Amino acid sequence: MNTAGTIDRPLTNDPTKQAPMKPSTYEPTGSAIEDLTMTGVTGSRQNRTREMQLQPEALARAHMHDRLHEAARERQAVRLVVARRMQRRAERASLRARRALAMAVMQ
């Protein structure tokens, strides 16, 4: 059986003979170090891709993105509540002014 290497059992342990890592199309420019050094890495981990090595960072980035959007929605909800409260206060003040004007006209 002639199968290509896997992550745990690479076809060759020599990094120079392995396929070069290609940059991801969805990875933002400058988000990773261009050349990952392989010093101190065991042979079973040498052919992991950049995406696998950056998954924790991508997960943290997505988590922070979600938290920022949640905070923005919360701020918008608070602003809406404050605006409605101020509108009710202005309506009450307007009614008081109308009543005062009507009382002044009637006397």
The count of β-strands is: 0
The SSE order reads HH
User: What class would the helix/strand composition place it in?
Assistant: mainly alpha
The percentage of residues in β strands lies in under 5%
Largest sheet: none
Summarize model confidence as the mean pLDDT: 79
Work out the helix count. 2
Q: Separation of termini?
A: 107 Å
Whole-angstrom Rg = 32 Å
Globally, the shape reads rod-shaped
Low-confidence stretches are: none
The percent of residues in helical segments reads: 40-55%
Secondary-structure topology with pairs:
Elements: H1 50-53, H2 55-106
Could you walk me through the main structural features you see in this protein, from its secondary elements to its overall organization?
This protein has 107 residues and is mostly helical. It has helices at residues 50-53, 55-106. The protein has two helices and no strands.
List key phrases describing it.
107 residues; mainly alpha
Concise synopsis of the structure shown:
With 107 residues, the protein is mainly alpha-helical.
